[in-house]
């Protein structure tokens, strides 16, 4: 088996991974980037609405800070939120000077639109293709630094020895062989895990692989119960109908043609935070005011915006709705339903993006995380739209800087870590799948898990649902150890990759169910029908889930409050 | 794994070239037997190009029979075949809504993104659909080698070179200047335009690289004159600009290339006019 060595290994080449790579390359680091798809296929490309920054006249990062902490239902770590909001204007201006084609005001300034949970219009946007614009511009800048990119390579496991991270064992998808990659610092930037649910905006590749890499290495996962269900997913398909539509003035209607958000968020209406709206929609449906023959969705109405505004501000929404549902949103109502969209939880890090191992924030040397896979936590119990793209750039850059510092301060003891044990284990895992003659097919197992999660760990949760989910999970876990892979060829074996992804999905789903069952309150996107109120006295803390044999062990970490004491949350 | 790779089995050689086979299929009328008359009209003959480097000397075609579901895209169909009939069928896919560019394929001769293309729009009257990879440089089945496509972009320095007085600009850009870019910056690098261009054979810059060059050439914030020199030397003449316009994002590389050529021509004339 071959071994490659770099100063820094970056797993995942979306916005966070690419931005970290640029920063590390600027500091003359030898960087190896691995990605299971070509970097420009990363899911960052799908982000639509915009990126928040307090660059407008009269706007202040402190207001952005307050909105973000309020939006997080006070679970966000405020030291991290401060950095996010303070750095935002510089990062957005930097992206602009890199050539991002932002939409502009008549005066030529970067245009900003209103967005959910924001006190002023501070979401900078490029029509409704902001993610695509940012990703491709970042990729262009990355090319300039001449990085080493291992495209279509899949990380099988982290190499952790003597309590530090020394690299990863990787599968070359094209050639079908295992490579060990040694590095002084490793960054997890693998994105979210929407594919653990049957209705999701996420691409097929969003299978939380980085989470399983950390979880299997004995590291904790933080706040896994906080999954954002985006209110406006396309009914029947799950694809995103961006919040940009509501930012431009769209209405949400029930079967009685009412703007029902008046009952749930009288001030902000359709621009309340996403958790409030998702619950409002599910509530309307539960009370028989759903639309359509099955009364199982609501409508998004953009007709009153007019064709000109729709073409200018939300052209991608119009195009996708037409392609997927065969309708023209200029004249017709868009059927929508809440859909699994973003993972607030993930691999816990401090503000330097170092992965931490316990409630005292002790870092795990050599391992970093940035972007959706990480949990700083800047989003707490609920993320505001426009803050995710921002997080990737702010903390991707910090990760690059911190990893370069780490490399300079820690000369690698070459050959001190024995990789053969990790290689053998990874080889065994792959061989078991490639030589399988019976078992469950990965798509069958995946569908079972997705349905289980959607029904029991969705917008509304309860003790009954979560307990039965735990029981059902045990059966799925047994099945995941015997997946039947039909394709036996080593070359570009998608069947094998799907099986590995499915195993990963099952692995960390355990932590989502356990954390959700333990948290007996409703906060942000975690809504318990049996505990409908927020309970700061008992639950103003982060959940940390660690693998413990076949079970999960939970411990808790305090929330960092720095300037904004928790208060009641209404929109 | 080494043992598996060593044995290259003699497969049933498909001695007839694909094109002849296709022509024969198209010429022959569908036999109306008792069985076919009783089958529902929605049974589809899906002929997919297959290639496994460990087993095959060259590409072959495998035919699957499926009943078409309403509203199914080409990608939905391939996924269903992969999951329920043949787990070895391999293809790329990610976002599913036409935004990432991963799933480019050729369907009944037309190059499209599989996820946004309805099977019912492209299948022939005798319920047949022929799915092939985007071009001939195949790794496996419908997965093509994308490396040459991405590497080529670097020839035109696909990044911004800021103008020196950028600081004074204060991050402003007029709406007119944004409109000058047209939609060139919306390219998703799917490779469909290049698949037609066969520029790799001629050595010319492919349409995607030209669109990327246009995207920066027309950006008022960019000042890379070296890029202009590179593209004006290599204005493509050998591939069909019409065919390159198969872009799923309606970018029309052919038009962009013509515009840049005209601009370059004008600039040379101006220069000659100024020179004393």
UniProtKB/TrEMBL annotation, chain A:
Q: Record's InterPro entries?
A: FAD-dep_OxRdtase_2_FAD-bd, FAD/NAD-bd_sf, FRD_SDH_FAD_BS, Fum_R/Succ_DH_flav-like_C_sf, Fum_Rdtase/Succ_DH_flav-like_C, SdhA/FrdA/AprA, Succ_DH/fumarate_Rdtase_cat_sf, Succ_Dhase_FrdA_Gneg
EC assignment: 1.3.5.1
Domain Fumarate reductase/succinate dehydrogenase flavoprotein-like C-terminal: where?
Answer: 446-571
Q: Does the keyword Nucleotide-binding apply?
A: no
Q: Where in the cell is it found?
A: Membrane
Q: Which cofactor does it need?
A: FAD
Q: Which GO terms describe its biological process?
A: anaerobic respiration; electron transport chain
Q: What is the top-level taxon of the source organism?
A: Archaea
In this protein, the active site sits at 274
Q: How does it sit in the membrane?
A: Peripheral membrane protein
Q: Name one Pfam family in it.
A: FAD_binding_2
Single Gene Ontology MF annotation: electron transfer activity
Query: What are the protein's UniProt keywords?
Result: Electron transport, FAD, Flavoprotein, Membrane, Oxidoreductase, Transport
Q: What is its main location?
A: membrane
GO CC terms: plasma membrane
Q: Where is the FAD-dependent oxidoreductase 2 FAD-binding domain?
A: 7-389
Q: Which NCBIfam families does this one have?
A: sdhA_frdA_Gneg
Question: Family, per the entry?
Answer: Belongs to the FAD-dependent oxidoreductase 2 family. FRD/SDH subfamily.
Record protein name field? succinate dehydrogenase
Which organism encodes this protein?
A: Candidatus Iainarchaeum sp
């Amino acid at each position: 088996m071959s071994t490659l060595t770099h100063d820094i290994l970056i797993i995942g080449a979306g916005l966070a991974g690419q931005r970290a790579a640029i920063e590390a390359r600027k500091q003359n680091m030898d960087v190896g980037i691995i990605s299971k798809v070509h970097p420009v296929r990363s899911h960052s490309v799908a982000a639509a609405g915009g990126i928040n920054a307090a660059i407008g006249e009269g706007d202040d990062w402190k207001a952005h800070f307050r909105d973000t902490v309020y939006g997080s239902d006070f679970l966000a770590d405020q030291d991290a939120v401060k950095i996010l909001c303070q750095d935002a204007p510089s990062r957005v201006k930097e992206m602009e000077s890199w050539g991002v084609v932002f939409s502009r005001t008549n005066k030529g300034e970067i245009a900003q639109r209103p967005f959910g949970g924001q006190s002023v219009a501070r979401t900078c946007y490029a029509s409704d293709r902001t993610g695509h614009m940012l990703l491709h511009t970042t990729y262009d800048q990355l090319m300039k630094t001449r990085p080493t990119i291992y495209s279509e390579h899949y990380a099988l496991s982290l190499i952790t020895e003597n309590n530090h991270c020394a690299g990863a064992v990787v599968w070359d998808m094209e050639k079908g062989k295992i490579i060990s990659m040694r590095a002084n610092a490793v960054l997890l930037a693998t994105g979210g895990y929407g594919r653990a649910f049957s209705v999701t905006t996420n691409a097929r590749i969003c299978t939380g692989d980085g989470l399983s890499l950390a979880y299997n290495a004995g590291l904790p996962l933080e706040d896994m119960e906080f999954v954002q269900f985006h209110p406006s997913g396309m009914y029947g398909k799950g694809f995103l109908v961006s919040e940009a539509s509501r930012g431009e003035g769209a209405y949400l209607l029930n079967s009685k043609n009412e703007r029902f958000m008046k009952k749930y968020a009288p001030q902000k209406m359709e621009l309340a935070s996403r958790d409030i709206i998702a619950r409002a929609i599910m509530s309307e449906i539960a009370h028989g005011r759903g639309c359509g023959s099955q009364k199982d969705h609501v409508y998004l109405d953009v007709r009153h915006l007019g064709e000109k505004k729709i073409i200018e501000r939300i052209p991608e929404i119009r195009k996708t709705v037409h392609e997927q549902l065969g309708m023209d949103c200029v004249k017709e109502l868009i059927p929508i339903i809440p859909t699994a969209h973003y993972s607030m939880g993930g691999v816990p890090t401090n503000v330097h993006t170092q992965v931490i191992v316990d409630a005292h924030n002790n870092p795990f040397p050599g391992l970093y995380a940035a972007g959706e896979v990480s949990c700083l936590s800047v989003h707490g119990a609920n993320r505001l739209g426009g803050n995710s793209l921002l997080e990737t750039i702010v903390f991707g850059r910090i990760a690059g800087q911190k990893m370069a510092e780490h490399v300079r301060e820690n000369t690698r003891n070459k050959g001190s870590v024995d990789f053969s044990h990790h290689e053998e284990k990874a080889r065994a895992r792959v061989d078991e799948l490639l030589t399988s003659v019976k078992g469950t097919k990965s798509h069958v197992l995946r569908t079972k898990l997705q349905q289980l999660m959607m029904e029991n760990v969705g917008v509304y949760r309860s003790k009954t649902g979560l307990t039965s989910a735990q029981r059902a999970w045990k059966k799925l876990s047994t099945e995941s150890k015997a997946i039947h892979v039909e394709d036996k060829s080593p070359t570009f074996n998608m069947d094998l990759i799907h099986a590995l992804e499915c195993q990963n999905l099952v692995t960390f789903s355990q932590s989502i169910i356990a954390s959700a069952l333990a948290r007996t309150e409703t906060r942000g996107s975690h809504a318990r029908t049996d505990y409908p109120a927020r309970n700061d006295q008992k639950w103003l803390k982060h959940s940390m889930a660690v693998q413990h044999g076949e079970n999960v062990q939970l411990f808790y970490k305090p929330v960092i409050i720095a300037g904004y004491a928790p208060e009641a949350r209404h929109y | 794994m080494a043992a598996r790779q060593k044995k290259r089995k003699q497969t049933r050689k498909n001695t007839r070239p694909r094109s002849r086979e296709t022509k024969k299929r198209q010429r022959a009328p569908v036999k109306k037997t008792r069985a076919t008359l009783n089958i529902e009209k929605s049974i589809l003959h899906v002929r997919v190009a297959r290639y496994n480097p460990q087993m095959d000397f060259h590409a072959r075609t495998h035919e699957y029979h499926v009943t078409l579901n309403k509203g199914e895209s080409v990608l939905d169909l391939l996924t269903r075949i992969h999951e329920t009939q043949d787990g070895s069928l391999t293809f790329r896919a990610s976002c599913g809504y036409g935004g990432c560019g991963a799933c480019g394929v050729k369907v009944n001769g037309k190059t499209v993104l599989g996820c946004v293309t309805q099977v019912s729009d492209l299948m022939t009257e005798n319920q047949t659909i022929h799915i092939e990879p985007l071009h001939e440089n195949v790794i496996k089945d419908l997965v093509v080698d994308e490396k040459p496509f991405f590497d080529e972009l670097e020839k035109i320095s696909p990044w911004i070179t800021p103008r020196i007085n950028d600081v004074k600009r204060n991050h402003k850009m007029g709406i007119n200047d944004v409109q000058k870019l047209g939609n060139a910056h919306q390219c998703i690098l799917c490779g469909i335009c290049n698949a037609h261009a066969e520029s790799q054979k001629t050595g010319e810059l492919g349409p995607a690289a030209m669109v990327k060059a246009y995207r920066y050439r027309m950006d008022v914030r960019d000042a890379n004159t070296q890029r202009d020199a590179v593209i004006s030397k290599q204005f493509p003449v050998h591939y069909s600009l019409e065919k390159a316009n198969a872009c799923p994002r309606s970018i029309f590389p052919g038009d962009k290339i013509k515009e840049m050529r005209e601009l370059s021509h004008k600039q040379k004339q101006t220069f000659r006019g100024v020179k004393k």
